[in-house]
Amino acid sequence: MFTAVAGVLGGLAIVAWAVVSWASKRRQPWFCTPVAGLIVLLVACGQAGWALLPIAALSAAAFAELVIGAREAPTLRTKFPDAPLSTERWAAAVAAPFRVALAEPWDVVTRPQLRRRYRKVFELEWGIVDRASLLATVDRLWDELHSGEDADLLVDLRTGTARSRDRGGGPDRTVTLSAEQIERMREITGADRTTETVVIGAYQWWASVHLVRLACGAATLDWLSPVEAQSLLRRIATDLQRRYASWQQWAEAFHAGYLLWRGGGAADAGPDRVWTALGLLTSDPASPWGLLPWDMPLERVTHEHGVPHAQSH
Fold first, then answer.
1. pLDDT by residue (tens digit) across 174-204?
2. What is the pTM for the complete model shown?
């Protein structure tokens, strides 16, 4: 009887460990494979009492991976490193910082492992709970992005402040930057130590990244069909490629927009994973921002396979 109980507990521990290890996409959890084998061996030999020790150890390892794995540092990962150039891959690279921040592959549009996260983020950030609210939000963000005037960001590297300037006369916004953020802005703009002020023009188009996030999340949640998601990504990519001349300009705009979106660098703020991911993408030789050609030909959105709109559903 005791052996049967140990066998059931051991089986549950092994299954839980295997599922957690597979989902984490890290190599470290698989180092416990000998422990799983020891459980099977001890139970098979009738040593149920001794089997409880490796069962407890494997269960603890699985639990630890749930905690530690979820906090893995931002990592630049690519699921299909040899994939051919495509509009979808180019568009995914646009929003890569948000995937790199989660140590998830940046080049995957549909990511089932992120379903729960997408649902939570969609509801918290945009109030999206279903397909209808998703389409309404896409329409609203698209209209807001294209109805406003260009905006510049003036970064005072001496005082550590960044101020937006709306060319249409809209209200300015000012944020205070941390020492690390000031240094990063010097690096991405190429400003030397004698430069006191830099200007990043037309940064507002960085908000296109949110449309890419919505497209990828909606495809993951099955709120958009593959054809609809591809059409939306192509529409975003084609529009964005006209706004900037290089990934360098995109990186500058992304940094500027993100600083304003997140409110700069508060002294009591914790580590910002997306900001860390931005640093990786602007400096790592394996970054898609250095490998993919900005001006690559993009597929056009056909009329038959256009992007759905909220009012038509």
1. 999 999 999 999 999 999 999 999 999 999 9
2. 0.77
Domain boundaries, given as residue ranges, for the chain = 1-70, 87-150+201-291
Burial of 17 (0-12, 13-18, 19+ CB in 10 A): buried
